[in-house]
Amino acid sequence: MNGTVTPTLSGWGRAPVVPGREVRSEDLARLTLDRPLSRGLGRSYGDSSLPARGDQEVAGSTLADRILAFNPQTGEIRAEAGLSLHDIYRVFLPQGFFTPVSPGTQFVTLGGMVAADIHGKNHHREGCFGAHVTSLTLRVADGRVLTCSPTLERDLFRATIGGMGLTGHILEVGFRLARVPSPWIYRESERIDDIDQYIQALKEAGPRWPMTVGWIDCLSGGKHMGRGTLIKGRWAEPSEAPAKPPRVKGRISVPFNMPEFVLGRATVRLMNTVNFWRHIPRVKRGKLLPHLSPIGLDVV
Questions:
Q1: What is the CATH number of domain 67-179?
Q2: For residue 248, what pLDDT is reported?
Q3: Is 223 helix (H, G, I), strand (E, B) or coil?
């Protein structure tokens, strides 16, 4: 068993930071026998992946990341819960497959994606990730390891998707990958002047674009309340995409904690203002981007 001991644990927002130890192993089934909580890559909000009291061990799933089965005809895949979205991109995007729903970071595990029932920029078309899950293997509170699906242990299956780990330790996940025409996204963005215009623009974009996301200035008021940028995207066809595939980049870490003033009211207001005014009014800007992670659609 490979152990990783950390003096403190936190989620994505680092609030709270608590004493705790994360122990990792390739044998996730064994690791979860006597530990009450599983943890993936720590991108959840708040305290959902943190122990209830200090100095408690949690089961880290990231070494249990094997792909167990894949059907290239149907896109069906079964993998251990610690497999990251980044590794799914790395392996399957060159083969023309992509996850049907992707969150705002590629550094999440399959177990976390199921537990949070993550959504993506195509939520209005494809729903949440749970809609594409075909089977789950998990260790429940009495120690048994059960397999569940839409037809087998149906109530347990439905409660586990979006259940934030409260039904047990997720060990394996089966789901369907989607076929994509290229690893590139054609993205179009436009400036929106107020919240009423924003709602109307989203209504018009939804039926025509499979991916939509908004950058909204929540600090503006008066006639400019809700102004921002509407971003729309679709998979680029092979004839539109560059011949050379994009490179899947690795993880970049910030080696220190940002001071609180970096996300203060003044800096956020300045960032919102710059983002709004860099778009020319009534001009839609198109661009090809590599869809190596869902944030490709967010970059303006």
A1: 3.30.465.10
A2: 57
A3: helix
